[in-house]
Amino acid sequence: MNNTVSITAKRQTTPAPSSEPATLGIPYARGQLKADQPLALTCQQAQLPLNTEITAYWNDGSVRWLLIKTLLSSDIKHGDLLTLAPSSAPSCSPAITLDQSPSGITVNTGSITCTIGKQPPLIAVTDLSTQAQLNQNIKLLTTNDQAAALILDDLKVNTQHPTHFCTIELAGHYLLNNTKRLNLSAQLSFYSNSSLIEWQLTVHNPAAAKHKGGFWDLGDEHSLFFNALSFDSQLHQTNCCQLQAQTDSEWFCDNSLQLLQASSGGEHWQSANHVNHQGNIPLSLKGYKLTQQQQEVCGLRADPIAHCSNSHTGINAYIEKFWQNFPKAVSLDHNTLSLQLFPSQAGEPYELQGGEKKTHRLLLDINNNRESLLWARTPSQLVLDREIYAKANTLPHFASSAESNALQQLINLGVEGDNNFFSKREKIDEYGWRHFGDLYADHETLYQSANEVPLCSHYNNQYDPALGFAKQYMASAKPQWLELFDDLSRHILDIDLYDTDLDRDEYNHGLFWHTDHYLDAGTCSHRTFSKQHLNVEHTAQSGGGPGTEHCYTTGLRYYYYFTGNLRAKEAVLKLNSWMQYAQEGTGAILERLLAIKTKDIPLLKRLNKGLAISPYRYPLTRGTGNYISTLLDSYYLDGKYSHIEQIEFIIRNTIHPSDIISERHFENIEQTWSYTIFLQALTKYLHYKVSENSFDKQYTYARDCLLHYAQWMQHHERPYLEQIDALEYPNHTWAAQDLRKAHILFEAYYFSPQPAPDYRQKAERFLHYVTDTLQQEPTRSFTRILAILMQNQHDYEHITPLIEHTEQATLAVGTYGPAPKLKRSGIITNIIKDLVKATLRFSYQREKKWLTSRLS
Known about the structure:
Elements: E1 5-10, E2 20-27, E3 39-43, E4 46-48, E5 50-57, E6 63-72, E7 81-86, E8 97-101, E9 104-108, E10 112-117, E11 123-127, E12 132-141, E13 147-148, E14 151-157, E15 165-176, E16 180-191, E17 196-204, E18 224-226, E19 228-234, E20 240-244, E21 251-253, E22 256-261, E23 288-292, E24 295-299, E25 305-309, E26 314-319, E27 328-333, E28 336-342, E29 350-352, E30 357-365, E31 381-383, H1 386-391, H2 406-411, H3 421-428, H4 465-476, H5 479-496, H6 554-563, H7 566-584, H8 589-608, H9 622-638, H10 642-652, H11 669-672, H12 675-691, H13 697-716, H14 733-751, H15 757-775, H16 783-791, H17 824-840, H18 844-855
Antiparallel strand pairs: 1-7, 1-31, 2-6, 3-4, 3-7, 5-6, 8-9, 9-10, 10-11, 11-12, 12-13, 12-19, 14-15, 15-16, 16-17, 17-30, 18-29, 19-28, 20-21, 20-25, 22-23, 22-27, 23-24, 25-26, 26-30, 27-28
Helix pairs in contact: 4-5, 4-6, 4-16, 6-7, 7-9, 8-17, 9-10, 9-12, 12-13, 12-14, 13-14, 14-15, 14-16
């Protein structure tokens, strides 16, 4: 099997003399690349520095996903082909060396040395060509304008085999007012023979929000407030300070320069999106202000590069997505270059909510060339041909051709037309350090009049648009999709995930879902429910938090594959733990006793009255489907087979091939429609079994459940909008949801052990209904509709039955008895089993934590 990969370099600007780092995730088919195979990266027969990391394996031990890191030299042009191929020798001689001691770590790249110490200064950098030195520190100001001391907790080398690339991780914390703790973590990346240092710097409030009454408004008593955070570099005897505010603009030169990006500079820069905890909009300046001595220059959106130097060396600095993550500032004052990530000039303290983070990416280049970071404004991309993704079985039914069918034309509205995802940002000014990257939930404005100010509503990755963006990029290589994917994924990791260990287990590390339907987010920001919604007539919701009905992990898994961002991998695994706590409980005896009172006894009473109750442990809903998907994503990341065993347990305790489907009451659409999401999760499991060539009884059971329900759908399902009397809000989101029915029926056609053209015909009718209906619908570019279409897009036109590819798939349909019935004895037996299990696993700490979290 050919394991040589061709990669295209796409460069949007003329390269500067310095080298530019580039990263790429590459999928491989099973058996295509052995894990121990040395590789070399070349361009026009010249070898490039290369570091590789395996981020996923096939079950035979071969590489499933490989992450490569390299440096693109200035002579690599737009459109040049790079070749990654097996090699018997390293691609280049290693340049990076490390020296670890109790006092810190020193990295030597061949161009600079950088010492990360446990005592001030935090960072000391030496230019090896001149031996000139500079020091760097991270400075936090409390609300009293006092500088808080950084206490370093951990310092380590993260790269397993540093040769041409190395990452150092540090973790520390600040104590605010001697009571509250603000965590700081950073990754420093170095490249061989390069003077570049790349920082990923994250601040984190590890506390749990108090969220009294289930409301998540700003101003929570466990929020952290601070006045400023800056990354400062001291270069002694500076004789030149320069700053360029935007691409191709003039360079300002002076002993003292300051640029403040106070707002987005957009048309709606004072949007209600930017309210603080008091409900006020604290923005007073449109765009940015650059101060030079006594002169001021104003503009809208800055993308600055700063430079200062002395007679020996210099430093160049760049903050990625500067204006988008306002407020931001850069100042150069004699011997100090300050990158102000949270500038004090904003005029009021910053609030970091419990479990909330913010990450900034900084680039520092130690040399005298002020243009060495110009590439950072439009970084190059390494691009794979779509055929590589298709042949590697990256996704089930991944499109292997670039045909633009009706469904694709609808999805393309996400980056084309007047209401694409980029233009949506402008409508409520979806910018600022907390908001940037999220998607504006414009569908929530559907019932507003045309002259009303649009609601501020946030989407928080519902229906996994992160995955949708990744799929679109793999299929088209359009950089807009990759940009959306990166922006959204970073936002999820920082803002949408509730990153704390100190709340209830069913909240810790969960994902906040979209803000409340058809209401302004107000002071709840991205956290779902606000106390401002209490007296609104049309909402029956009053409180809540992360919920299992709204958990989407697959996009984050692919973000890890694409970038190697370990936080994405950790987030998926933590979401899996959160889902298990929410679905299974914590295992505390007190918790189980409460469940007997609130769940089991009511079930027994319903049985005594002769009322119908479900015999299954898990409901046939999207929450259970999301549980399966999260377990499967976790398996792909950590390889623990216990995740697969849990999936199989869930399936058998949710659905049966002999179910009497009329008892599911699918005519109650509002309560039952999401059974389709469960069935889609079932197909993900089946595709996993096929990829492992595992056609066992678990496969057969799950497949027969799918076919049983698909047969019912074939005869009974019709478009939702033909049943508007059963819908609370009969809008065209329902037409998009009908694509799920098409997907399930296509999968039934694919998995059926005998020819089943009827499934395909019904599936095609639903598919054409969706596209024909939405093509005529003005709301077709709404965020929720596009998210659903992207999530459920597959290469439907080229799906062929599995029986045409493998004889194992012809396994006959299994023989099953009647579906289970719930009996009193069964309920009592389950109670006894659970209590025995909890007693055997008794932990005083678990009981105390469970009780304390409820009492608090």
